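R.M. (postdoc): so does anyone remember the format we settled on? I'll just put the structure tokens first.
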């Protein structure tokens, strides 16, 4: 028997020698024969029980279970059982645990994780999800209260209600399970299709670290396709950092964002904020068409027939936030004027705005948007030309670069002819690890100077920090052009630092020290 004092410093081991009845009887007979001269009381006594006391010294430093049992793969004999319990957690199949299942897990964290989505010892159940799509999930009040102040108030607060079943219709089951997994297992398991719902659950039950992880996940996966939806959600969840990141993407890649399916899913307040945006980098005809697409989907949400009248009705005053008078005349005449969304008087007044010296008053905003001012990163300190350089015969000029902040590459600045004015055909590409992210085929005219001439992608390409990308161009035109020299491996451009290195794709001589692609044109 092991005994320990209150301070846990000394332990004693008491060893008892138990004698069988037969042995006791024999020893009693021998004792009675030898002890005839002794009193009758002493002859009836059994011999004393033998014992031994051993003092064990313990180390002063206490160790936790994780220190004593370092995490490692279970032995082969237990592998099947461990996998069985993990599968039980996922499926909630309520199988009866094997005896001594606690022995399979050396740490309290692992044993606690067994309780995740497990009916074993559950003292509360949640019916999660909207009617028709509910899922019944088990819970353990103590574990939940430790992980969330909302659950603590719900189960142990002054106004706690003793309910065995709690209905949560406003949270998706998958999101609630993701939150429970974090509380029970200290693991964050996020997916693109459930991260917003998980963020909602984390906000509702005040689980800040999980909420922060959701925001980080969203920022990492942010693109023009989902920026408008995330903008709407970030305002709802009061996440200003995420809101700012969404605006950066929407401003720089406005046309892609406005043409995305997610744009039609935003609420009216978000629609108004986008239409008001001064720095929106898009043609106004694209803004107009996006607003009409949103109006058609909004009619469906309100169970209205998608007629011209109903589209105008759901748009309301937001229609006048579209800067129709700033469109190109062709865009207005062939697009907005024939859409039917404008009244006859509005159409006539806007035509007069384009042509008349005395312009009529309009309800529409007539001041063009400022858009974004592109920045240029020039990587050469000088340029030159020679009688035998720089030649183009279908070969590729390429350079690799990396930035320390997220930017959006809009195009490249290229050198032109060194023998007078000339026209070039340029195929530009932007790749990451061999995958083409953007490309375009266009022409530009050079005037014979050493200036650089911009060549643009159809849409700006999002560039993530601390990753090398490959910029390439294949030129067709005048055989001789200017080329850069005294190249820099690192250039500070505003708040963005750009690093350059040679590319194996370059077959025409361009590298860090000299060559083509003198400029990166980007939004930041």
């Amino acid at each position: 028997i092991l005994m320990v004092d209150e301070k846990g410093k000394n332990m004693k081991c008491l060893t008892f020698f138990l004698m069988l009845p037969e042995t006791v009887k024999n020893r009693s007979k021998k004792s009675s024969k030898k002890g005839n001269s002794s009193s009758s009381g002493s002859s009836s006594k059994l011999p004393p029980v033998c014992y031994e006391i051993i003092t064990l010294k313990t180390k002063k430093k206490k160790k936790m279970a994780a220190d004593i049992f370092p995490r490692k793969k279970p032995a082969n004999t237990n592998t099947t059982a461990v996998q069985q319990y993990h599968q039980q957690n996922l499926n909630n199949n309520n199988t009866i645990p094997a005896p001594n299942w606690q022995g399979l897990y050396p740490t309290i964290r692992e044993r606690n994780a067994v309780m995740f989505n497990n009916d074993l010892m559950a003292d509360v159940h949640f019916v999660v999800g909207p009617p028709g799509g509910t899922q019944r999930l088990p819970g353990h009040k103590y574990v939940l209260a430790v992980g969330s102040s909302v659950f603590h108030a719900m189960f142990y607060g002054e106004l706690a209600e003793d309910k065995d079943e709690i209905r949560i219709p406003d949270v998706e089951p998958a999101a609630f399970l993701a939150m429970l997994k974090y509380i029970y297992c200290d693991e964050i398991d996020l997916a693109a299709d459930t991260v917003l719902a998980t963020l909602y659950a984390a906000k509702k039950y005040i689980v800040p670290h999980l909420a922060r992880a959701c925001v980080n996940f969203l920022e990492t996966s942010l693109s023009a396709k989902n920026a408008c939806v995330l903008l709407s959600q970030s305002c709802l969840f009061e996440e200003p950092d995420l809101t700012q990141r969404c605006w950066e993407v929407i401003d720089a890649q406005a046309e892609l964002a406005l043409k995305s399916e997610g744009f039609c899913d935003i609420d009216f307040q978000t629609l108004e904020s986008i239409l008001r945006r001064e720095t929106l980098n898009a043609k106004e005809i694209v803004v107009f068409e996006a607003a009409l697409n949103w109006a058609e989907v909004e009619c469906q949400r309100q169970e209205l027939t998608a007629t011209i009248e109903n589209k105008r009705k759901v748009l309301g005053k937001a229609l006048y936030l579209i800067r129709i008078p700033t469109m190109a005349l062709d865009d207005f005449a062939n697009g907005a004027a024939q859409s039917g969304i404008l009244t006859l008087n509005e159409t006539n007044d806007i035509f007069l705005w384009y042509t008349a010296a005395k312009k009529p008053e309009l309800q529409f905003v007539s001041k063009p948007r400022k858009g974004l001012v592109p920045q240029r990163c020039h990587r050469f300190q000088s340029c030159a030309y020679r009688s035998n350089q720089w030649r183009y015969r279908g070969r590729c000029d390429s350079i690799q670069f990396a930035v320390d902040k997220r930017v959006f590459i809009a195009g490249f600045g290229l050198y032109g002819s060194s023998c007078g004015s000339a026209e070039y055909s340029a195929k530009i590409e932007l790749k990451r690890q061999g995958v083409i992210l953007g490309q375009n085929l266009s022409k530009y005219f050079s005037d014979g100077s050493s200036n650089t001439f911009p060549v643009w992608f159809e849409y700006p390409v999002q560039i993530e920090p601390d990753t090398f990308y490959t910029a390439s161009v294949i030129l067709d035109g005048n055989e001789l052009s200017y080329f850069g020299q005294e190249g820099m491996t690192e250039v500070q451009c505003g708040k963005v630092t750009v690093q350059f290195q040679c590319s194996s794709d370059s077959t025409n001589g361009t590298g860090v020290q000299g060559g083509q692609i003198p400029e990166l044109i980007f939004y930041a």
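R.M.: ...and that's the designed sequence above, right after the tokens. Also worth knowing: The CA atoms of residues 153 and 160 lie 6 Å apart. The chain has a mean pLDDT of 83.
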